[in-house]
Design brief:
By secondary structure, the chain is of the alpha/beta class. It has 9 helices and 12 strands. Strands 6-7-8-3-9-10 form a 6-stranded mixed sheet, with helices on both faces. It has a 4-stranded antiparallel sheet with strand order 2-1-4-5, with no helix packed on it.
Length: 249
């Protein structure tokens, strides 16, 4: 479980979170949604230690985030970042293997067990054909799948996903989500925009507006027509077995 108390964060004079209180439940697929600029990606960056908050507390599994050593934290939480451009031109195999580094001493080599785990998740993400390709030779959607494989190889109980399917085709998006839903030992915290996917795959939804929690709970309680209108400024309705459609005014 992740507990956030009185969290304050700003980019210079632009305040993102003024006093955020939030409990993210464990052993669930949690989706964080909301319009652009509401703080979704910033929240994941704060949880992953990519950013330092100015005030407040973050506890993960009852322990203050700052009390974890670097090694402990990298074995606790993996972060599939929104922007994976600008990475060095490793081969895909070498890049995915880097997910095992938190379990190694500085000069320790990879074992057969490491390679078996890599092979498992390369197959599950349909990326085994790219093992000898350079990262700068694959498409955006393929790179997202490779990066997902690396995070899964890291084998952490917490997996943060920031728009991790945005460049994937619909087949691999659905396949990836089905695969993630089958990982019952993971705490998955995912930023997504597609309300239909959020509704179908989430156990718990956190709806943000202007750096505050507007609503949270199971999908059908959060993704109401009134809430969508209030947060996104658009009228939508949910039709059973069809999903959300835009409603004419």
């Amino acid at each position: 479980m992740i507990e956030i108390k009185n969290l304050f964060f700003s980019y210079g004079k632009k305040t993102i979170f003024e006093s955020l209180d939030l409990v993210i439940p464990e052993s669930q697929f949690v989706s964080i949604i909301g319009p652009n600029g509401c703080g979704k990606s910033t929240l994941l960056k704060l949880l992953s230690n990519d950013l330092d908050y100015q005030r407040g507390q973050i506890h993960i599994e009852g322990k203050a985030q700052g009390d974890y050593s670097t090694g402990e934290f990298s074995r606790l939480l993996s972060f599939n970042r929104q922007d994976v451009n600008g990475i060095f031109p490793f081969t895909c195999l070498d890049y995915v293997l880097m997910g095992r580094r938190p379990y190694k001493t500085h000069f320790e080599d990879f074992t057969k067990d490491d390679l078996n785990l890599v092979e498992k998740f390369l197959k599950m993400t349909d990326t085994e054909d790219f093992i000898h390709a350079s990262l700068n030779e694959v498409s955006g959607g393929e790179l997202q799948r490779i990066n997902l494989a690396k995070c899964l190889v890291q084998d952490t109980p917490y997996l943060l996903l920031d728009e991790s399917f945005s460049a994937m085709d619909i087949y691999h998006t659905i396949k990836s989500l089905n695969m993630l839903k089958g990982l019952s030992d993971k705490n998955i915290i995912c930023v997504m925009h597609d309300l239909n996917l959020v509704y179908q795959y989430s156990d718990h939804v956190i709806l943000l507006k202007d750096g505050k929690v507007y609503a949270e709970g199971i999908p059908k309680e959060v993704l109401t027509e009134d809430a969508i209108k209030a947060v996104y400024g658009i009228s939508m309705e949910y039709i059973e077995n069809k999903g959300y459609i835009i409603r004419g005014e």
